[in-house]
Design brief:
alpha+beta; tt1808, chain A; 3-stranded antiparallel beta sheet
């Protein structure tokens, strides 16, 4: 993620108008825009695997799965992020055109350059979404998935999954083997055992 080079601050409305004319996507945080750089093939494959499985699982129900180009707004004025996968079951998002605002599940696939941000500040932003029940972080360099789940006391609990585990996403009642997200992803033996 790279900040806008001119350093000018934008209002949310200026961001919307400006981004529509850009060739790449930009996230918007506190008046600044950050370019969304291209991802490595394993990253894209992992996101597609999970998004496809979620779409199939949710078919015919009231929830919808999205990936990559679906923007999520923390509020009407931002920040605005592009998660790798997002699910919304909220009626208010059914008519959304520019961004989703009421997701129950957000998934980020980690990149070396954004891992700390995805685990830290971005998660802090996402936690402000009242409808969010699970935040999932998937490692693209080794088999591992961390699911942060909001408990009934209002605290976020970590549920880590490793090779051989079955993953349980309670927000969408979806159980699957962790191997599903790594299908067709080439990891070295060292990465698989780390």
């Amino acid at each position: 993620m790279v900040a806008n080079p001119n350093g000018n601050y934008m209002s949310p409305q200026e961001y919307w108008e400006w981004e529509e004319r850009q060739e790449i996507k930009y996230e918007y945080i506190n008046g600044e825009v950050f370019s969304m750089t291209g991802e490595i093939i394993p990253h894209t494959t992992i996101a597609l695997n999970l998004a496809s499985a979620l779409k199939s699982h949710l078919r015919g129900g009231s929830c919808r799965a999205f990936m990559a180009d679906a923007k999520v707004g923390i509020s009407e004025n931002g920040p605005f992020h592009y998660p790798d996968v997002v699910v919304s079951c909220d009626e208010r998002d059914k008519q959304a055109i520019k961004f989703l605002q009421y997701p129950c599940l957000i998934v980020e696939v980690l990149s070396p350059s954004t891992a700390a941000y995805d685990r830290g500040e971005k998660f802090t932003h996402y936690r402000r979404i009242k409808t969010l029940r699970e935040y999932v972080i998937i490692d693209a360099e080794k088999i591992g998935l961390d699911c942060f789940r909001l408990n009934d006391r209002g605290f976020w609990e970590l549920h880590p999954y490793e090779q051989g585990n079955e993953v349980n996403l309670t927000s969408v009642d979806f159980h699957f083997s962790i191997s599903l997200v790594y299908e067709d992803v080439q990891l070295t033996l060292e990465q698989m055992n780390s």
